[in-house]
Records
---
Amino acid sequence: MMEDSSLISHEAYGAEIAGVLIPRHRIAVRLDELARRIIEAYPDGELTILAALTGSLVFLSDLIRRLPLRLRLDVVRVSSYPHQATASREPSVLIASSGDLPGRHVLIIDDILDTGRTLGLIRGLVLAAGAASVRTCVLLSKRRDDLPGRMAADFTGFDIDDQFVVGYGLDYGDLYRNLPDVCLLRDLAGRAGR
Ligand code: XMP
């Protein structure tokens, strides 16, 4: 589902937010669809979710409550955007998963796919740990025509243009995660995330 980038203005967010890119009701509808597809992909009903902190937390909590599966939850913390950078850097693991991955069907959840380095790193760790299967799920996927070979997620909520987004778990300088919608920042609106 490609997202158009026409902004809905939202006065409650104040001057720093340029507008809402994806409103909460559209996220909710899309999560219902994503959940249906994920349930179909795991006919045995067993699933281990490995969530990348911190940006995926809101997406994660809304998604897993739509998944009536025998579900285990694990987390990993990977740094990719140090401090207030809007450019993706080489990620490194800050907090490792609990390690209960061998033989599990693992679904990695992240907030957004940009260069693919973060998901690629986590995917490699899960495969090396001996998981039975590995799939990936992101709320947002940035269009990166400049990276033709970039990995794709198995499940994607919304495809968006290459712009820096906040809200619904995503941050800038650790702020804005609590906004209920996916938004664009005023001073970064229209600027590529590099
Ligand atoms: P890569 O390049 O590794 O980047 O695919 C994915 C990670 O980078 C962060 N990221 C963002 N965070 N707004 C954010 O708040 C964005 O527009 C954005 N783009 C990338 C995010 O942590 C993700 O896990």
Note: Residues 189-194 have pLDDT under 50 and may be disordered.
---
Amino acid sequence: MTPLKKLATYYVHLLSRLGVVKFSISLAAAIIMVALAIQMSVTFALTGKVSAVDLIRSVFFGLIITPWAVFFMSVVVEQIEDSRQRLSKVIRKLEKMRSRDLQLTNKLKANISQLNKEIDEREKAEAARRQAIVNLEQEVKQRQLAQQELEEHSALLRSFIDSSPDLVYYRNEQGQFSGCNLALERLVGRTEKKLIGLTPYDVYPEDIADKIVETDHQVFDNDEPLTYEQWLEYPDGRKAFFELRKVPFYGRNGNRLGLLGFGRDITERMRHQANIEKANRDKTQFISTLSHELRTPLNGVVGLSQILLDTALNDAQRKHVNTILLSATTLGNIFNDIIDLDKLDRRRFAVSMEPMDFKALVNDIETLTEMQLQNKGLSFKFEQIGPIPSSIVGDPTRLRQVLWNLTQNAVKFTEKGAVGLMIKAQPLAEQQVQLDISITDTGPGIPQNQLEQIFAMYYQVEGRKSATGSGIGLSVSRQLVRAMGGDIKVTSKEGEGSCFTVSLKVQLDSIPDEAEQIDHPPLDILLVEDVELNVTIAKALLEKLGHHVAVAMNGKQALASFDPDSFDLILLDIQLPDMSGFDIAERLQQDYAKEQLPPMVALTANVVNSKQEFAKAGMVDVIHKPINRNAVVHCLNNVFAIGPHDEPSETQLNPSQALSRSSQPVLDLELIEQFCSSIGCQVLTDSVTLFRQVMPDYMQVLESNLFAKDQQGIASEAHKIKGAAGSIGLARIQRLANKIQSPELPAWWDNVDDWIHQLSHDYPEDLKLLDKAIEDFSSAETTESKDSLNLPLPLDQD
Ligand code: ADP
């Protein structure tokens, strides 16, 4: 600050401190003093002396100047003061502002530092975030890799599961499908997507679903895996046999989520097994065929021994012939067992129900047993309770076979003591009798724990070296008796003996003894038979009955020697070296008018063919081999009692009614002709092509159903084949399919496999014939002459 400014400030300060009056006085005094000093100094300097007037002038000057100075000064001061105050105000304001600024600055500073802090933090966070992102990216990468690996694994697993031929599926606790592999998709004919959420009832037929759900419940109830076998069905109807395994499966925390299922198609295995069984059966069949063949010469031995016994013999000869008869009978019964064994195996077994002389049968058994016992030095006891019925309805061959087996065993196993035969006959209802036939012996007996086992096939009590055997007699016997509606029971005590009892309910036969010959005039009979032994027996038997017999040893001879006026009856062996009895019958029916032909009777050892089959071939009756007197007499009575031209009863066979084999055509030519002429042969050809295409599938389904023993499946598939075959004129296939689709037919189960086999064998052949027929019809159509049609159709074999 300049000294002037300082002086002014001081002046203003003084003025404001002293107030105007005091300040004015002080200023006046100061001015006077300054004026005095200046006056005196100047005057004295100038004059060398100071006068009073000078003093007084200075005083007055001071006094005059002072107010003006005061005024002036006051105005200045006021101005200054004003500006000072304004300045102060401004300064205060400024100070205030400054302090506010300061505050603001502080705040700002604080904010800035806060901001800096935040920035720092943010930067740190950003860095951390960046790090986190890097980490995250790494993790994502890792996860992607893991995911990829997982996907690869699951794709691998999936392709494992999908390429598996086994069924793989899972179901939840509610029994709904949650997933499956390709094999199951194929089985149910739906994709996995469509399958999810469905229950077995939505997917399988009800009977199959029932079993599936039942086994699911078993798995859930027991909380344990389960393995079982079941037939399942493909959408096209093909059946396959599956071994199914169901396993409960659990989540991480141990809660059960549902079940996993695996299914293996074991149809082939089963088929293989069945083939093995079949091979086994074939072996049995071979043995039985062999036995059958052996039985023919054996029957000669039995027949001739019987004829010999009717002649005059000395004791030794009689004994020898008896032994021959006994041995041959034993052998014959063993063969019978073997043949029956095969039939039982092939379910072809059927007992015949015919009037039989029960008394004679008992006598035979009695005589033959006694003969054997005599040879062993043992005694025979016969006992009877109640009157033995003379004639009953039953199967004489089988009953004889059973009793023979039992008495043979009794004789075979007994070394000392006796064998007994006891017949107990108790009348039941009218015409019905309860027969209990017991065979007792004093042999070694049978251990208690093996009493049932001895009825098993090939079973023999251990340690019985003395007697030989095959172990099939009792098994076959029990099955035979059971087939007749009865049973065989055994009681035994080791070391004391055994008692076998056959219990049967039988019907008494009220028909008079048919074995008595009705008086016929001597007949001229043509016997067509190739086996010399059979010829000898049959000829001897017929001649003994007073008839004349001419013999033809084969088909050619038979046809050559036949003259309708020379013969009253033809006995036709079915199996001849050059042609079958069926062929001869057919040729004769073709060559001669119906009225010219004498009755034809079949001679056969085959018990499988039914009478109806012979009737179809034009034969009026059948005589089963071995030929015996009763059978021949019965047949002659039968045939000649009604007379060859009489109307026979419903059950008897009528050659005029019997369908000729050629009336069962392979093709329905009429339908084919109509088809060709109305719609055109091309359409028929197209239909045949379609049939050719679908038939292998039909056959596959049919065979799988046969294998699965699904009667309904067989019938429904055969129904399709029948319809398809019928619509294109395959008459034989249609008939065959009709039989296959009719389970109500007698012995359907016994025959259906043969029919199906025949169907698969015949249809390609028949299709060839159909092609030929269509070809002929279309060419006949163009020449407008259907008469030119000439088809070499084979005869129906069904
Ligand atoms: P096979 O006599 O040919 O051996 P079977 O089936 O007739 O066959 O008999 C089976 C087994 O039962 C015989 O091997 C024998 O061990 C026992 N058996 C049968 N009958 C008697 C019997 N009367 N006394 C003692 N054991 C018997």
Note: Residues 642-663, 785-798 have pLDDT under 50 and may be disordered.
